[in-house]
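Our preliminary data section would be incomplete without showing what the modeling component actually yields. Below, a chain of 142 amino acids is followed by its predicted structure, encoded as tokens that our downstream tools consume directly.
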Amino acid sequence: MTTSLNSSVPARDYASAQLVHYLRKAINVLTTPAATVVNIGTLPPGALVLAGLSGVFVTADFTGTTNVVDIGYATDGVTSADGDAYATDLTLALTTGGFVAIDEMAVATGRPRTLETKITATWAGTASTGAFEVIIAYVPNR
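Predicted structure:
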């Protein structure tokens, strides 16, 4: 009789593994007007965000010259929203394939939080076309 090598842990339960996790959300300027707060996902308590692996990746060329994005978190019952806790006016690359890393991890707002944290992104600018993905890489606190 053949038995599974992983018989005690569900296949998708990675919480106890030493893996980098991520949140990823696509934003298209045609369907998401400027100044719209977009929910990216939720980090578990104590998660450590990895600055060099987190940021914005442009998937469709942008029009306009002043396109920026803020990445932060929503109101959570303990603190009010901080829409630019992880990135403030992060300049979006104008062409496909451009990656820009988050820029606020060395300050207090970038430290791990003790509660679940809903990550948000808000773009601003003059673009009428363009698309990007927000990528947040993190290590859970386990």
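The chain has a mean pLDDT of 84. Strands lie at 21-28, 38-43, 48-49, 55-60, 68-73, 82-91, 99-101, 117-124, 131-139. Preliminary results of this kind motivate Aim 1 of the renewal.
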